[in-house]
């Protein structure tokens, strides 16, 4: 071997050595700062939510760091992603890689078996059971019940008043509708006690999980225990009534869940699961629909042309409906009203986004997102993207004339994929029935034009959204 060959051989050997012993390059995390230990960006995030400047806050992040960035929220390293492909990624990601994520207090209050805490087959089974009640074919038969609730509400809280505070009233209304359909409980003392319990329970959902006397979390746990005892009692009552055939599985959500799995025991729900999920549904449906209806009332108080068009549509239905109560077919005719509701959801999604927990390391857009981190998505970032919704700050219900023309994973007020809101049809029915009776019976104007709101995490109007109402001659 001459000197040149020796040299080449030496070079090959050393390259081979370096190739074999080279350490894997460090994992690349997305750009962004983690801020101060533990606190991270939590305080500025909460401040932006409270002052309703979260959109600007998120926009600043994306202009500084791009579409994927890291930060630290609630003591956990977090990745913020947004846009159509990010939404698609989150909503369709394997449940073993990205799991649903709620603050620790949430699980303690709602129970370990509530649907939002479940993953994989367990999630599918429990979700399937709830959907059997929340699907349109089932809800069709409850339109009359919702109609009665809305009419009672309007008689009791709107007629005879000159001013009403819309937000608290809409919460009472959505609670009453749910207590009728979910618990099978009509108006009266029990309902009043239940709404108080629910509110106490919900006050602690976002609190620090410190179970000491007089903490918010402690009050919330106590309310949750009382509510659970109440639901357990209802379960026993329904079981007895179903056995004696004095009630059927269509009576309410509890009866429906008890009827599942008669022929297929593997999909049966335990009593504990029913309790946790009844509570979960109450929480999920309470603030969301009431917020949507409040925003609609606000819009109709500000935009005369939209109000007039909705009145025209609803009065035509009022004149042509075949029975005193609204029917499923009447709701199908409320096309313009629902487009206005969708546009309202686009511009003001009640749920701004949510968190997912990283259960396994994964790669996204060339970055490694490690196990134990959390991922946050935000609906408003796609809803206000001019490349998807042209002139996004303009209120234009015509965008929803052809729903198929909206690209997938771009309108995400109800989420998407395996966890898409199973209550969207329920929300549609209660919203349409409520707007029908409000616009056919009243005109209104806002008492304060600057009715700004904060987010906690749902929108809250500082004046409760006070309006002056004038009854129409019916
Ligand atoms: C305008 C009204 C509503 C809006 C905007 C809304 C929005 C959402 C969103 C965005 C999600 C997905 C959250 C995520 O992916 O992390 C969700 C989930 C959920 N919603 Fe709704 N919701 C509404 C009304 C309702 C109602 C009325 C009910 C029940 C009657 C309900 C029950 C649920 C449940 C149980 C989940 C959890 C689903 C799962 O984890 O698989 N929602 N909702």
TrEMBL record:
GO biological process: sterol metabolic process
Annotated residues for binding of heme: 421
One GO location term (cellular component): membrane
Membrane topology: Single-pass membrane protein
Compartment annotation: Membrane
Record-linked InterPro entries: Cyt_P450, Cyt_P450_CS, Cyt_P450_E_grp-I, Cyt_P450_sf
One example GO MF annotation: monooxygenase activity
UniProt cofactor(s): heme
Annotated Pfam families: p450 (PF00067)
UniProtKB keywords: Heme, Iron, Membrane, Metal-binding, Monooxygenase, Oxidoreductase, Signal, Transmembrane, Transmembrane helix
SUPFAM superfamilies in the cross-refs: Cytochrome P450
Signal peptide residue numbers: 1-21
Family label: Belongs to the cytochrome P450 family.
Name of this chain's protein: Cytochrome P450
UniProt source species: Gossypium raimondii
